[in-house]
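writing this on my phone so excuse typos. first protein, seq and then structure
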Amino acid sequence: MSHQRKPKVLIETFGFCLSSIIDNGLMTGLFSAIRWTVSL
């Protein structure tokens, strides 16, 4: 059971973290990347 459940938990945790990062930081990160690219 634990061997089958562990990947699912990891995937769900990773997905949650990824969605949080996207929701909180996508626009900020995008604008930062654009400004950094322009400043080059």
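second protein below, same order as before
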Amino acid sequence: MTWDSFGVASRELATQIAKSGYEPDI
């Protein structure tokens, strides 16, 4: 896995989390 594909996957995951209504305590 390259850093580019990792970045895309992490952005897609973050989008799915955001759509589910999850809000991290940061």
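The mean pLDDT is 84. thats all i got for now
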